[in-house]
């Protein structure tokens, strides 16, 4: 993740990054430990099978 930050900031001139992750898989906690913060949630928009709908979790990392 450090390399991603380095390229985003140094080579691309970005100030922040955004990602979308599947809810209910522990990814919020994983990315949270790396400095990402939840910025929104879209309930039940990801369907993995009948009766297996998950939230889409929107996260951001700023400043880089």
TrEMBL record:
**Entries under Gene3D superfamilies matching the protein:** 3.40.630.30
Name of the protein in question: Acetyltransferase
- Originating organism: Streptomyces wadayamensis
Q: What is the lineage of its organism?
A: Bacteria, Bacillati, Actinomycetota, Actinomycetes, Kitasatosporales
């Amino acid at each position: 993740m450090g390399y991603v930050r380095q390229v985003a900031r140094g080579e691309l001139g970005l100030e922040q990054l955004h990602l979308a992750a599947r809810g209910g898989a522990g990814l919020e906690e994983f990315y949270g430990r790396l400095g990402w913060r939840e910025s929104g949630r879209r309930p039940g928009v990801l369907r993995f099978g009948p009766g297996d709908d998950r939230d889409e979790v929107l996260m951001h990392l700023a400043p880089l």
